[in-house]
């Protein structure tokens, strides 16, 4: 009974289409399991839950992808959610995971072209907003103290390896969509946009992380993005300095490495030292 109700409620084309696929287009067999009430036939009662199923997921995705929803507008975002759920119905009980593949959906034809006509950077904006959600839900991590580093002998620095905070994510995007999310964050919840904000394509690297119970995101240079990715891979500090020397020259490598390390400590990106 539960499996049958699930099929009827989640059918993208509606309850009547699901009944027809079962060979029960009239709803007669369903009526032997569910009573009609207050003038509603059994199939109509199930349709109430089918409509609520979509509305609830739509509302959750609108919350998870607030800037994307505002950029596309209510009608286009409604259509996006409908096509997304048809292609990627939820596979886990929690609504938290319902939107996990939305950026992938926006990068897949024909949806890339369909929604790209409304907003060419929609997939990148979805990637950023999902990273923000992931950072919000990431497990807590410790924060590396400067005092820990200050007590290390100079000869130990070359082999130092750092743990990054579990919430840290690095994004390589084709559009500077962080500016769109910044505008969204600065506006009231009931604000609307008549048209998607204009953007020019630009290779953009963004780090997303949580610090002091707040999710933060910031556009960074490719140099910093490459360096942070190397830290996440477990490369020692000496190798990081060599990497920087190859990019900026020997004279600039040490001060650049020190500057990045200081910025990462201040932002709370480093969780500790790898033993």
Explain this structure.
- By secondary structure, the chain is mostly helical.
- It has a domain at 124-273: Alpha-Beta Complex (Outer Surface Protein A, domain 3).
- 53% of the residues lie in helices and 10% in strands.
- The protein has helices at residues 2-10, 15-22, 28-31, 42-64, 66-72, 74-87, 102-106, 111-116, 122-137, 146-150, 178-186, 222-232, 237-248, 250-267, and strands at residues 162-164, 169-173, 204-211, 214-220, 270-273.
- It has a 3-stranded antiparallel β-sheet with strand order 2-3-4. Strands 1-5 form a two-stranded antiparallel ribbon.
- Helix 5 runs antiparallel to helix 9 and helix 13 (237-248) crosses helix 14 (250-267).
- The longest helix is centred in the first third of the chain and has 23 residues, at 42-64.
- The model has no long low-confidence stretch (mean pLDDT 93).
């Amino acid at each position: 009974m539960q499996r049958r109700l699930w099929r009827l409620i989640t059918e993208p084309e509606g309850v009547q289409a699901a009944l027809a696929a079962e060979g029960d287009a009239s709803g007669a067999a369903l009526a032997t399991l569910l009573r009609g009430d207050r003038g509603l036939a059994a199939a109509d009662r199930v349709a109430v839950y089918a409509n609520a199923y979509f509305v609830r997921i739509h509302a959750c995705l609108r919350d998870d992808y607030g800037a994307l929803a505002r950029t596309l507008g209510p009608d286009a975002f409604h259509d996006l959610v409908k096509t997304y759920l048809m292609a990627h119905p939820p596979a886990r009980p929690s609504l938290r995971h319902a939107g996990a593949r939305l950026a992938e959906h926006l990068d897949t034809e024909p949806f890339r072209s369909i929604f790209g006509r409304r907003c060419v950077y929609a997939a990148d904006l979805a990637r950023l907003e999902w990273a923000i959600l992931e950072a919000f839900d990431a497990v807590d991590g410790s924060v590396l103290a400067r005092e820990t580093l200050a007590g290390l002998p100079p000869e130990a620095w070359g082999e130092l390896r750092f743990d990054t905070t579990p919430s840290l994510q690095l994004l390589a995007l084709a559009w500077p969509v962080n500016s769109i999310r910044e505008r969204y964050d600065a506006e009231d919840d009931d604000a609307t946009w008549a048209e998607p904000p204009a953007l020019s394509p630009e290779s953009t690297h963004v780090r997303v992380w949580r610090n002091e119970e707040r999710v933060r995101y910031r556009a960074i240079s490719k140099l910093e993005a490459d360096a942070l990715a190397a830290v996440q891979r477990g490369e020692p500090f000496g190798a990081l300095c060599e990497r920087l020397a190859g990019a900026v020259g020997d004279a600039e490598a040490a001060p650049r490495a020190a500057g990045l390390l200081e910025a990462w400590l201040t932002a709370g990106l480093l969780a500790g030292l790898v033993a």
